[in-house]
Design brief:
It contains 14 helices and 12 strands. The strands form 2 sheets. A 7-stranded parallel β-sheet has the order 8-7-6-9-10-11-12, sandwiched between helices. It has a 5-stranded parallel β-sheet with strand order 2-1-3-4-5, with helices on both faces. Helix 13 links the parallel strand 10 and strand 11. Helix 2 runs parallel beside helix 14 and helix 6 packs across helix 9.
């Protein structure tokens, strides 16, 4: 009895990411599980060579830089049965036509959640030690801090407010467990019992803001969360409180946040902003109570290999006739990033 033909697989992404996503050992596994030309990468589905290849494609491996999979692309790919996304959110990639076709979608978003949670944990610990303010004072004075300047420094008993039990939020909650924190959680889709199992106390958003020393945003960017931290809610955070945003800038009113930070009342650690990047004249670049990073919390450098490994394992499962382990459901898009 002849063995089944391996699935015809095509890359669709910016090819600059391929070497980090799929170093030689992972590329070898891809080629063993599929019919794949590793040198062929689609950047434009309208390209004649891409259109010709799509007609014979069973599985697309997508990533950053992949054009949207609209109805025209699907018409050109009648054999397509799975999209394996070597990145995070698929919201901007897949449309209704794909779901109507019943095409399987899988994402490496779980792998991308880990570095974001790790970045956030690091920033929580540094913020609790008042690291950034001490650094600024030390640079200016070259003097060690006085007892008065360290009176409120430390991580014992810090109240950490986590907004959103997303994949990142849940991973962060795991990472927070070994530390001497009180962890608060707000998520409308989580019950008090589930929050307790995650190691947190579930609170309404306003109460979480009032009672947290450090607030970390991990909610999805959906219409319901747009500007969820407006001027009124930012004002609930205690004086000297810290806001960490590794989610999306759209979740926070940028003018209200700027006003709070310029006043010096709050501190912020911002890996994402709105707009992104901030204009050159933004005061946030210069404020001592603001720590800005250029959207680096997610997978970068050698962390991309983790995403590639997830995709390889998904392809091996599909080739073996097994369901994917990281499937994205159409219904998920209503409340995830």
């Amino acid at each position: 009895m002849p063995s089944p033909q391996p699935p015809r697989v095509v890359f669709a992404m910016d090819p600059v990411h391929l070497p980090l996503l799929f170093p030689p050992p992972l590329m070898a596994r891809l080629r063993q599980a599929s019919d794949l030309d590793p040198a062929f990468v689609v950047r434009d589905f309208a390209d004649p060579a891409a259109a010709q290849t799509l007609a014979r494609t069973d599985v697309l491996i997508t990533g950053w830089g992949c054009p949207a999979l609209d109805a025209g692309v699907l018409t050109a790919a009648p054999r397509l049965r799975a999209v394996l996304h070597a990145a995070g959110s698929v919201r901007s990639l897949v449309g209704e036509a794909l779901w109507e076709r019943g095409i399987t979608v899988s994402s490496a978003v779980t792998g991308n959640a880990l570095p974001v949670a790790e970045y956030t944990l690091a920033m929580i610990l540094l913020a609790g030690k008042d690291t950034f303010a001490h650094r600024e004072r030390f640079r200016a004075s070259h003097l060690y801090p006085t007892e008065a300047e360290t009176a409120h420094t430390g991580n014992v008993g810090r109240r950490i407010g986590v907004i959103g039990a997303s994949r990142v939020g849940r991973r962060l909650l795991e990472l927070l467990r070994p530390f001497d924190f009180t962890v608060l959680l707000h998520d409308p889709y989580v019950s008090p019992a589930e929050a307790a199992a995650l190691g947190a106390e579930l609170l309404p958003l306003e109460d979480l803001l009032r009672h947290s020393d450090i607030v970390s945003l991990h909610a999805p960017d959906i219409p319901e969360t747009y500007r969820m931290l407006d001027a009124g809610r930012l004002a609930l955070i205690r004086d000297g409180g810290v806001l960490i945003n590794t989610s999306r800038g759209a979740l926070v009113d940028p003018d209200a946040l700027t006003d709070e930070l310029v006043s010096g009342r709050l501190h912020a650690i911002l890996d994402v902003t709105e707009p992104e990047p901030l204009p050159a004249g933004s005061p946030l670049y210069r404020l001592p109570n603001v720590f800005l990073t250029p959207h680096i919390a997610g997978s970068l450098g050698n962390e991309l290999e983790r995403l590639g490994r997830i995709v390889v394992e998904e392809l091996e499962r599909l080739a073996a006739g097994l369901p994917p382990a990281h499937e994205v459901q159409h219904s998920d898009l209503a409340h995830v990033a």
